[in-house]
Amino acid sequence: MRLGFLGLGVMGVPMARNLARHFPVTVWNRSINKYPLLKDTNASIGETPAKVAQKSDIVFVMLFNSSAIKSILTKDFKQALQGKILINTSSVPVDFSESLEAEVQKAGGHYIEMPVSGSKVPAEQGQLVGLLAGNREVVERVRPYVEPLTRVAVYCGPIGSGLKTKYAVNTLLVILTIGLSESINLAREQGLDLVVFGRVLEACPMASAYSKIKVQKILNEDWTPQAGLRDCYNSTQLIVKAVEQANTRSPMMRLCTKLYAEALEAGLGEEDMISVAKIVGGSQL
């Protein structure tokens, strides 16, 4: 099967690289400066999203949001989807995913939803968690082609289920990030050695692969994005909308959303999501 990949951002580049190790892949990105990052792979470049779809049997989409996806839904692109499978890995609202499914089906193609849990490092290692949704038969057909990206790919149900699962999982992730930021800030303001604090936290039951990575980034003052702050803020907005639609409450998420909005206004959007610690601490770290 020939694969296509649209969107070479922080997550898209390692995902496309992993696919290109196993299958023929044609890639496209809005800005051409990302193409050299795949020059040592067998990936080829498509001039437009429509050209990628024409050359592919399965097309992966990893674009920033629904507006970015709408911008590629040209007449030529939709015509090229006939008989093809489109796998959307981007985080978008459920209603947009449902409308995208309708567009793809109208064009004669199949649509699968697979948002992923994980950031840049798991993406590089092919250790993402895939949250599959859609027609079960089509999902099973694409499983061999998502294996290079994931350590596990879980079938969540019909279209919308994958995204809803991600909203719930990311609720914990976002709140954990703010909690970790507050914890480190308190340790610092009490005059503690943050290296020692990091060792203690690593030995505690609350420790995780995530906390270990983020504590180390703060200690090294390394704000390069593994999961971008702007992406995280986008996620908080999707979660808040999902909370409202589910008619439930998430007071912590509303507070986290405000803090991420402050971080975005402070110009931290292109940094790692843990840079919200700068806002939580009330001063630049």
Helix count? 13
Distance between the termini: 48 Å
- Sum up the overall morphology in one term: globular
- The total count of strands amounts to 9
Low-pLDDT stretches are: none
How is this structure best described in words?
It is a single chain. The chain has 285 residues and is α/β, with parallel strands linked by helices. It is 50% helix and 13% strand. It has 13 helices and 9 strands. The chain has helices at residues 12-20, 49-54, 66-70, 75-80, 94-106, 120-125, 136-146, 161-189, 194-203, 209-219, 229-245, 251-265, 277-280, and strands spanning 3-6, 25-28, 44-45, 58-61, 85-88, 110-113, 116-117, 128-133, 150-157. Strands 3-2-1-4-5-6 form a 6-stranded parallel sheet, sandwiched between helices. It has a 3-stranded mixed sheet with strand order 7-8-9. Helix 8 (161-189) crosses helix 11 and helix 11 packs antiparallel against helix 12. The longest helix has 29 residues, at 161-189. It is globular. InterPro entries: 3-OH-isobutyrate_DH-rel_CS, 6-PGluconate_DH-like_C_sf, 6PGD_dom2, 6PGDH_NADP-bd, HIBADH-like_NADP-bd, HIBADH-related, HIBADH-related_NP60_sf, NAD(P)-bd_dom_sf. Residues 160-279 form the 3-hydroxyisobutyrate dehydrogenase-like NAD-binding domain. Keywords: NAD, Oxidoreductase. Residues 3-155 form the 6-phosphogluconate dehydrogenase NADP-binding domain.
